[in-house]
Amino acid sequence: MLFGVSYYHEYQPFDRLADDIRMMRDAGITYARLGDSIWALCEPREGEFHLDWLQPVLDGLHDAGIQVVLVTPTYAIPPWLARKYPDVMRRRVDGRPEPFGARQNMDITNPTYRAYAERITRLVLERYAQHPAVIGFQVDNETGTGMSCNDAVFDGFVDWLRRKYGTVDRLNELWGLTYWSHRLGDWADLWRPAGNTNPGYDLDWRRFHAEVTTEFLRWQVDIVRDYARDDQFVTQDVVGGHGRGDADRYQIAEVVDIPAENFPHATQDALLHPPVPSTIYPAQSQGTGPAQLYQRADLAYGAGRRNFFVTEMNPISIGGSDNTFPCYDGQWRMAAYTCISRGANMIAYWHWHSLHYGRETYSHGILNHDLEPNRCYDELARIGHELAEHGDRLTDLTPDVDVAVLYSYDSRYALEFQPCLKNPDGTPDMRCYRTIFDRFYRAFFDARAQLIVVPTSVELASYPVVVAPAVYIADDATLQRLVEYAEQGGHLVVTFRTGYADEFARARWRRAPGVLRPAVGASYRLYSNLADPVPLRTVPEVSGNGVSRLQLPPGAVGEAWMDELELEGADALVSYDHPHFGRFPAVVTHRWGRGRVTYVGTLPDSASAKSIAAWVLEASGITPRGAGLPESVRVTGARSPRGERLTFVSNWSSAAQSVDDPSIAGVDLVSGETVERHVDLGAWDIRVIVEGTNS
Predict the structure, then answer these.
(1) Which residues of 172-183 are buried (b: 16+ CB within 10 A; e: fewer)?
(2) Based on the number of CB atoms within 10 Å of its own CB, is 257 exposed (0-12), middle (13-18) or buried (19 or more)?
(3) Phi/psi of residue 226, each to 5°?
(4) Could you report the per-residue pLDDT of 509-525, keeping only the tens digit for each?
(5) pLDDT value at position 405?
(6) Choosing a second label site near 686 at 20 to 30 A (CA), which of 109, 579, 618, 679?
(7) Domain 2-145+213-396 in this protein, CATH class
(8) What is the pTM of this model?
(9) Does the pLDDT value for residue 283 go beyond 60?
């Protein structure tokens, strides 16, 4: 288990390397990430190289037993490169050049940029890759294309289309370019994306950019492998959560040894469970409550279906000068162990010390601007010492999984281009895919399921429940795999918009939900946005087939959308309390082969979504861990490579909790205390119980 920081000795206002390393060692830090934006320092003028300054940093960290991941310095270019070779700068979709002054402002496909990036990368690696402190490498940083539209990028897109589709006639057919007289007579007729209104075009443009990002990282990985030892790994830190729209975590996981993600999260009362709604926290936090952390971790583990690194967690704060919310005591530790419980093999913080200048002056480190210990440092030191003693038993864990949630980048792209939902102010909800996905992930989280988030391409048979939220873009083969999953004994949960469009973003010309229709046991011919929430009611009687009633909470409503479902063998579970829509069921379920398909035709409010998820778990024979405990208490499980069962019991509240659960038995990993069903938890407290052991 690695525990550490991003370290920028080059940003310190005076030379305090020895003090920094001493404080890191005292805090149990075992890992430091170096070098992500050192290009201008290493090459201040073209062809003039200064690399010696990094030697004492690596030597000092190594002498202290702190291992290093070295980052290729390619995501922030020096000013001379932009000045002398302006063609390296990215052009926006509207043709305007990206100005210098920020980072990631270059066209990562540009051959001039690539040549200079390769040169500085190879020079750094030639000098330091074999340093004994270096255990691995990170290629670039939070990489994406920025949706650049330089001439060569657009030409590359045309070539990509030509390879994919062969002829313009084929493209005309699949994109539907007869519409508005957009048919191409030649590849040269393809217009720039700034003027595009065609959904097929937009979908392929976004797919292309995700592939460009992956190709760029693969190119860097190949360079690194020319210098890496067999015992050194390569990783890449993607933006966590829903992440960037020009990077695909599933593709990236295939080109690196260890997937890694960055985990900024909301803190203080925004970690309470049940969650307290708030608009104060930035969008990257993915809402409030502990689900934000679990969801990020379940996305990260699902990227490669293997253990992952958390390369950037909150120290004092992450964000701008108006976003300083340091954790309450205990929350740093809870966040760290939560990620570990879901498969993290490293917890690291961005970054060691708060910067005294620059754009991120108030995206604080572990040390504030006074560079002295504080309560953040003290709590992280506690984590560091615990992991130093017990980290080997927390490494390479396999998290328990009750439910797999499918993630579809194609559907996200398409629903950002043609949103199906509205914001409260009547504008299109460009984040509607994320709105739907988050609602259903959190529904099962609130129902205490343990989850994993996987792409639609994975083998599903091992998961007792699979949820397909708004898988709007899918080919027939993908949908047929979902049908077969249910037929062979799984419980498939499908939401509205799933399967409505094909892989070319064309609405299917058969009654919805298309390929899924026989398995769903219902269909619809019309659908409607909902201007206002519509009350939901439980169907008082179901037709049998072993179907139990679904109990809704008071005030249950469907929001934003509804399909006018017509039963074709399914049982209605929920209907609308509405003078017109009341004749249509809102939620139906259907026995299919040895399994079951449940279809949700609206966006249920959070409490109702939880009730639906709880019904699905019960119908699937799943009793989630922690059922019946106080809402603030979560219980999750994992298995170690040595066969030990670990139970993580956490209290997401400021009030102490006394927990009694017969499934909790073993030895507290940290205290050594024997635990038999009864656990006391302080405010913001988490305990790790190793089951069936006395050591």
Answers:
(1) bebbbbeeeebb
(2) middle
(3) -65, -20
(4) 999 999 999 999 999 99
(5) 98
(6) 618
(7) alpha beta
(8) 0.96
(9) no
